[in-house]
Amino acid sequence: MTxxxxxxxxxxxxxxxxxxxxxxxxxxxxxxTDLFIxxxxxxxxxxxxxxxxxxxxxxxxxxxxxxxxxxxxxGHELAxxxxxxxxxxxxxxxxxxxxxxxxxQLNGRPDSTERCLAAxxxxxxDRTEERRAxxxxxYLAVPETQRHYALGDMDRKDRPLQVLVAGPGxxxxxxxxxxxxxxxxxxxxxxxxxxxxxAERPSRVPADGPETAVAPAIHLYESHPLKPSDxxxxxxxxxxxxxxxxxxxxxxxxxAHAYWALSTDDSDARAAITEADTSFTAKGLAARAGRRDGWxxxxxxxxxxxxxxxxxxxxxxxxxxxxxxxATLVYDDIGSGFWGDNAGRGRNWTxxxxxxxxxxxxxxxxxxxxx
Length: 371
What we know:
This protein has helices at 51-60, 92-106, 112-125, 129-140, 144-147, 159-166, 181-200, 255-262, 267-275, 279-289, 295-313, 315-322, 349-365, and strands spanning 7-11, 14-27, 29-38, 43-44, 48-49, 63-64, 72-75, 79-82, 218-220, 245-247, 250-252, 329-331. By secondary structure, the chain is an alpha+beta fold. The strands form three sheets. Strands 1, 2, 3, 4, 5, 6, 7 and 8 form an eight-stranded mixed beta sheet that branches. A hairpin with a 2-residue loop joins strand 10 (245-247) and strand 11.
């Protein structure tokens, strides 16, 4: 759940991560709504409550796990209906157990499934009946709704797990069956093969490389350099860094100057922008001149071309960009949520295009691939 549905709330100026799931709240009618769960243990069920208070909401039926035949229900501003032969999958105890697991997941702590698998590993390392009993207790502590997914094996589900913790002569939870020695030996072999696969997994990467960056992210903070530096560091990757770019015979003082000049059809404004003493002044002149038709749709392509020009025409700056390896480039732009990341609120298109140009520079250093 937490991997698919991520949200947050702000408390004391800090982001508290959370997730959500669907529930019915019984307030006269039964309202299908979202239940928000946060890492600090608070739950929003039409009002923030502690986990203990949420348990009381379950006990009183405010958060409903039983849906009476014929009861009126609604999805806010979407539809209303009455229940006909309702079937629910969760009891209040199961819902509470799942939410406790969700809070553990949000905090990066082992949930009931991970605790169960750790107990199984402990049993396999020292196969005493005491450790088997601990593994069985840990298995039964996993919410029933989650047990099928414990091994991540949608073909066998949790059958090998049930067999292992029951032991020869013991009974499985479902289906109700006695574990034979043959069943037990197969389960032990399954876990031995699983352990080998898990041990090999860290070394398995996609054929063309890892999915995420190896180098740590680099934050390109807002800055307004007025003159070049002998050792600018990553400040040289800012669009307003004074590195002249030649575009179709016109030399602009920086990528920012070129971007704003090309954004307008007004020839006088374009000349003034080109001559502006700072990128801030250039932006102000462009704002008064107005944008070209279709600029919004073309601007990312224009910026990509300007960045290619900058790093092609300035090899020293290209080396700085290449030195960032495969790091995620987080670009601040106070004036634009399109170009800047801006504390996670923007789209970071400048950072993305810098990464694209960096990849192109790396490709240019490789020998041309053979067909």
